[in-house]
Amino acid sequence: MSALVDQIAELNKSGVEIILISSGAVASGRSEIHPQKKLDSVDQRQLFSAVGQAKLINRYYELFREHGIAVGQVLTTKENFSTRRHYLNQKNCMTVMLENGVIPIVNENDTISVSELMFNGSPSDPASAVIREIEHGKDLSNYIQATKSSFGRGGMLTKTNIARKVADEGITVIIANGKRDNILVDLLQQPDDTVCTRFIPSTEAVSSVKKWIAHSEGFAKGEIHINECATDILSSEKAASILPVGITHIEGEFEKDDIVRIMDFQGNQVGVGKANCDSAQAREAMGKHGKKPVVHYDYLYIE
Asked: Would the CA dihedral through 95, 180, 142, 172 be positive or negative?
């Protein structure tokens, strides 16, 4: 941890804005407390996380203070991204911190091991090498091990999908070995000579609203199923909305501005968007021409 803070301090003083996402609260708490009775997995995570978060933030505070850098804790949960308002409130909090020279330290519940995020050329080949770049659309199914750390709950496929989605939004994603000396500084100062896995970002601009929608699938209240023609249009280069004429089925109940999943004619999810009307109005307009979009293009993210 001390080496990590030293690197962040060096980058911070060179003008790089940093937000530190700190996992490890559960593992940290586990080393501090020994329950008097057996607990189920949920209770254990809550207990260890509560103790570990206090331990971690205190340690970060002491280490950064040696460099004359102020830090602040931002506790977040999945629900903090459920609405655009909550998302913007959280973003504003971290923006104010950065503008005042404070490094935000974001704590989440899940513990993710950096080492398990490295992508090898073949999991069964001991002579394999790290994949240096991952372009849009590259199939990684043969390179992903379906294992996770003893503390982490997310699988490799989930993490890969998230990394790819972020890259599709025009943001470079780099996965590297955090145990390597000076890794953060080397990634920025010597990117070509530093071993890592880099997800190549899309060159197309993505609005901040669509970035939020892209990661809101977990809050979807319903599904909008579309026909083959509408599916083809969405997969083309055209800027298209979800019109009632192309809808074949509405699943679930939702209100205006709720997040909904977009399903193609074969039942596969192809996107997610913000509903422009409630489910009753969508069912009433379904299959009809000349009606307003159920999901407008500006609030539609196609995977």
From this structure: positive
